[in-house]
């Protein structure tokens, strides 16, 4: 399990002017880590994250905090996900620079995608950066 990568969907958002970085994730099989597209695991994580955002929308107006890179799916080693992502998240929520957060996340991730949706098409994953 420690060698298995972890797939994490995250959203850089603001609720009523206050930053939030909700995320959800799951470990992947090593075989899935070699695929170009995150597949069904990526789609289910994106759906779960979006439903969580929808539920939290009662807290106030929802706004993307990083434009097109506000909704991301990243693949991280499990150790990185548990040790390095929480302090990075906390720093951004407390007012850290968005670009610095994204650069740091890019360095930590083994692979990453922007989650996008085009009208009349299924959810798609655009390699990021």
Mean pLDDT: 92
Radius of gyration: 14 Å
Instruction: Count the E strands.
Output: 8
Could you give the distance between the termini? 27 Å
Summarize the main sheet: 5 strands, antiparallel
Number of helices: 5
The helix/strand series, from N terminus to C terminus, equals: EEEEHHEEHHHEE
Structural class: alpha+beta
Low-confidence stretches: none
How many domains is the backbone divided into? 1
Major sheet: arrangement of strands:
4-1-6-7-8
Rough shape?
Answer: globular
- What helical percentage do the residues reach? 25-40%
Q: What oligomeric arrangement do these chains adopt?
A: single chain
Strand fraction equals 25-35%
Question: Can you give a write-up of this model?
Answer:
By secondary structure, this protein is α+β, with helices and mostly antiparallel strands. The protein has one domain. 37% of the residues lie in helices and 29% in strands. The protein has 5 helices and 8 strands. It has helices spanning 30-33, 39-56, 78-83, 85-93, 98-108; strands at 5-11, 13-15, 18-20, 23-27, 62-64, 71-77, 111-116, 124-127. The strands form 2 sheets. The chain has a 5-stranded antiparallel β-sheet, with helices on both faces. A 3-stranded antiparallel β-sheet has the order 3-2-5, with no helix packed on it. Helix 4 packs antiparallel against helix 5 (98-108). The longest helix is centred in the middle third of the chain and has 18 residues, at 39-56.
